Design the sequence.
């Protein structure tokens, strides 16, 4: 299945213990972080990035010569972008393309320490560049598409990526714990990118908002929110776009039918 680890590839222990669709991923706020990581890598004589490129409709898919993706993988990426933009009636900016660097599983430490600058990262996206050890990383492609729409607090950016980024089938049906105090995590300053439970809760809340208000209205909210918004600003956006307070939206989410992963 495109996007799933090959049985012949080594599997890191933390990957086997953490569901892929809620695995911690980092969307870095400034391009200087990725640039600095790459500069250090080259300066220290490290391995260069993948040296071959496949050009698809929406991506420059960079890979190693002996690690070529199957055609279904690149077709899947393009079809996913088409489907996501159609569902949200989202027009991508002129020249939109993703530079997708597919690293080997054995290069996970390189990805974490030099490219993503986060020891828990399984992939990361900044602007038009994504680094991943997966053949297809749909979570990050959601970021790529929605980065063109706005830059909200991480809970909303990660939330929509959790809803639409397919994950590990073994977690389908797992009950989602909605007792987490999500409100306190909504400002960017409070978001903990290392907590898997935050991603699950943010995704569940986002799914509730989309189901209740629709994709077009959610996209309007996404566009109004700003990365540095505090709770008062987030509440104002909810009232303006959804005609409901943030507190009432959270209460409605918790009172809605139980949610399951998948």
Sequence:
């Amino acid at each position: 299945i495109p996007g799933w680890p090959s049985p012949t590839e080594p599997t890191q222990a933390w990957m086997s213990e953490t569901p892929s669709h809620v695995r911690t991923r980092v969307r870095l706020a400034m391009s200087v972080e990725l640039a600095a990581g790459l500069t250090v890598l080259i300066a220290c004589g490290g391995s260069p990035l993948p040296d071959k490129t496949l050009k698809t409709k929406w991506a420059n898919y960079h890979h190693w010569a002996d690690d070529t993706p199957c055609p279904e993988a690149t077709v899947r990426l393009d079809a996913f972008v088409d489907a996501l933009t159609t569902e949200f009636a989202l027009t991508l900016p002129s020249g939109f393309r993703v530079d997708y660097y597919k690293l080997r599983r054995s290069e996970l430490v390189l990805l974490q320490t030099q490219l993503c600058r986060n020891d828990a990262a399984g992939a990361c996206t900044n602007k038009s560049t994504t680094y991943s050890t997966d053949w297809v990383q749909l979570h990050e492609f959601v970021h790529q598409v929605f980065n063109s729409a706005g830059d909200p607090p991480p809970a909303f950016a990660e939330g929509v990526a959790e809803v639409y980024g397919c994950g590990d089938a073994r977690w389908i049906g797992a009950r989602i714990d909605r007792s987490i105090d999500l409100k306190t995590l909504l400002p960017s300053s409070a978001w903990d990118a290392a907590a898997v439970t935050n991603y699950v809760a943010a995704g569940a809340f986002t799914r509730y908002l989309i189901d209740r208000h629709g994709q077009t209205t959610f996209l309007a909210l996404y566009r109004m929110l700003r990365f540095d918004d505090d709770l008062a600003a987030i509440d104002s956006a909810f009232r303006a776009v959804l005609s409901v307070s943030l507190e009432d939206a959270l209460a409605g989410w918790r009172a809605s039918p139980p949610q399951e992963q998948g």
In short: The mean pLDDT is 83. The beta strands are 26-27, 52-55, 59-63, 98-102, 123-126, 129-132. Residues 9 and 105 are 7 Å apart (CA to CA). The chain has ten helices and six strands.
